[in-house]
Design brief:
The complex is a heterodimer of chains A (331) and B (289). Chain A is of the alpha/beta class and 331 residues long. In chain A, the strands form 2 sheets. Chain A has a 7-stranded mixed beta sheet with strand order 1-9-8-7-6-2-3. In chain A, strands 5-4-11-10 form a 4-stranded antiparallel beta sheet, with no helix packed on it. The longest helix of chain A is centred in the C-terminal third of the chain and has 20 residues. Chain A is globular and about 70 Å long. Chain B is of the alpha/beta class and 289 residues long. Chain B has 2 domains: 142 residues, no CATH class; 123 residues, no CATH class. Chain B is built from 10 helices and 5 strands. In chain B, helix 5 packs across helix 7 and helix 7 packs parallel to helix 9. Classes of the chains: A alpha/beta (331), B alpha/beta (289). At the A-B interface, strand 10 and strand 11 of A face strand 2, helix 5 and helix 6 of B.
Amino acid sequence: MRFTTLDRLKAWLDRLAQEVDLVAPCDVDGHVLYRPVSSSEEVLLDYERPELPAKDYLFPATEVLLRIEQRGKDVALEEVLPDRRQVLFGIRPCDAHGLAAIDALFLHQAPPDRYYQHHRERTTLVGMACIRMWEGCFCTSMGGGPTDATYLDVLIRPGPEGFFLQPVTPRGVAVLEGLEVTEPKGEPLPVEEYNPPVPVTPTAKWRAMFEGNIWMRHGERCLSCRICTYVCPTCRCFDVADRVVDIRSGVTRIERIRAWDACTSPNYRRVAGGHNPRPTNWERLRNRFLCKFCYYPEDFGPLGCVGCGRCIVSCPVDIDITEVMRDVAQK
Amino acid sequence: MSVRRAIIHQLREEARRLLSERRVDCIIGYETGPRGRVRPAFLYEPAEADRLVWGPECVHNLTTYLHNKKKPRKRGEEPPRIGIVVKPCDSRTLNVLFAERQIERGRVYVIGIACEGVMGRDGQPAAKCRRCTDRVPLVYDLLLGEPPAVEPAPDDWSDLERVAAMAPAERLTFWLREFDRCIRCYACRQVCPGCYCPTCAFERDDGLWVDMGIEIPQKFVFHLGRAFHLAGRCVECDECERVCPMGLPLSLLNRCLVREIEALYGHRAGRAEALTPLLFELGPEGSPI
């Protein structure tokens, strides 16, 4: 396995930051978050699971799709597809796994999502293996793992005296070209702690449980906020709207944006005329779980959950996806 | 038996009695989940009463769930009668909701608990408890526990000093940096018992005032707008700050207005069953009000 030292890794990161848009885990006022960086000094190399997934850099929370300019009767449309290359450094294996789940819908269904595809083609995923499973993590039950390289371009594994480099794809080989390697010292750090496994139930059983009383039991305390969907590396619902950004004599400038949406939020499912087919918190929560374990895999292939555990630790009322999974398995 | 265990015992007995005598249709209290975390619980059967717990982890303000219980479960029925567990701070919310005609007093059976304070995420006493002057709920039908031996600490507003000391430009920078982390998940609004409008002025899909973008201008307008809508109504339960996944110091905004309203009107939300004077009181001509 290829090996490099801390100094060499930092020099490589500094060079990358000059050449591409580099995104890496940072300490943002006490929160570990993926943020654009301009120097290796800003990059965390020993960190927990970042609090938000990396999807924001391929499927931004807010994205301008079109710029529309109206002059009298003339309307000009300009598509917004910035030609930037980016490296997502230090993402966790579950984040890459989450992107693979999103790919199933945005890339592998026809037609592909033009914007997501554009960013995906220009992005290299350099992952950092986890040295333990953090609170709530259950990736090993969802087909992933703390050292899983499957969905990455490169996997880095920390060692006692440096970093072990495992290129996975041609794109991964290419991004490592500028990184000076040396004689390996020691072994990659083993995974210190595994969390207990969680049962995964076939989609048909989830579907059969639609009418069950477990949804009310788990969902009655749901606040109908958007935390679980926004911290989720696979949730990819969005809404589209036009917003006027400027009106001057005879010229109107409009942006067509898309922004993240959440099926847990009360208005998500409201239709014209005001009817809401999912009027209660527990019906919305049921949809979220059935989407992950029934509708999404049946329609697009992969499960809509990679076991990152973020929704578990960030839910203010202790709604726990693994508790629901265990309940469904036991029924 | 410790005070805490005695309270839990009484709480369960009372819940069993209320449910079996059909005095209430549902009890909203606290339970411990499989991960050992305390969370809101909804009980409908007497046999469920032993799920109830009480302790310093019972931080949630459960009164927010009363808004989900205003409608009958089935058409033609009466709305459900609710038994609810409240701390002193939560009980102030009840006064606000009664005054605003959101909840009928007769539909709620209030189980008040004398409180020694609850814990924040760090396991330390929550900020709201360090300045708490009410160790006994202001509204209750049944009081559990004895007034604890904790000295009430007068509010010194020291939390606001840091921000108040900043020059306006510096303060703007401070807030923009905080709002930058906001993910617009609306957990603060959803958990707030005072945020019960059927359609929020800042709901994203209407886009009349604030568009759906998750960017600083929308977040800025939302947080400031929400704070103003709660002026004279916020009881400082700090739930908005507790649930924020990005750790925004939202109570600073609310407490800033709490202090202003108290200075102008002598009003502190929820201390009595009264509406906010900000919207309903006019002062004499020439007065600052």
